[in-house]
Amino acid sequence: MTTSPQSPDHTALGHVLNWWHDARKHWSALRELESLQSTELDRIAMDVGLTREQLTRLVAQPDGVPLLIDKRLAALNLDPEDIRKLSPLILRDLNRTCALCRDKGRCADDMAADPLAPGWESYCPNSGTLHSLT
Of the chain's two ends, which shows fewer C-beta atoms within 10 Å, N or C? Predict the structure, then answer.
């Protein structure tokens, strides 16, 4: 029986190449942001409901906008579309707050182990809003 070679995406080299590709895209986004005039950067930040500092910090994050809030919503049986219908501003604030959170690593670890394990409320800046929606 012959085996087919592994696809490049599943080899160590494939992982490194994927990382390099993602890193280059990230660095490109940072350079693009840095090239903007401060008034243009302020306008873009205001358009998405952030300060210039928040936008810069968000773009500088290697993982970009997290999917953790989507996982937390699912764990709490909350539908993002229902929240959007209730108030698009609430959903935007949940996403913004999650994206700027400094405890993403802890949250990701907790979500992988048990999304509803006791204690997540103690570090999640969205916990109050999430509990008010449940």
Answer: N
Q: Using CA atoms, how far apart are residues 69 and 50, in angstroms rounded to an integer? A: 18
Residues 6+ positions from 58 with CB-CB distance below 8 Å? 50, 64, 65, 99, 100
- Say how far apart CA 9 and CA 4 lie, in whole Å: 14
In contact, 75 and 116? CB cutoff 8 Å: yes
Q: What is the pTM of this model?
A: 0.59
End-to-end CA distance of the chain: 55
pLDDT digits (tens, 9 = 90+) for 81-99: 999 998 888 988 898 888 8
Domain extent listing, the chain: 11-62, 65-134
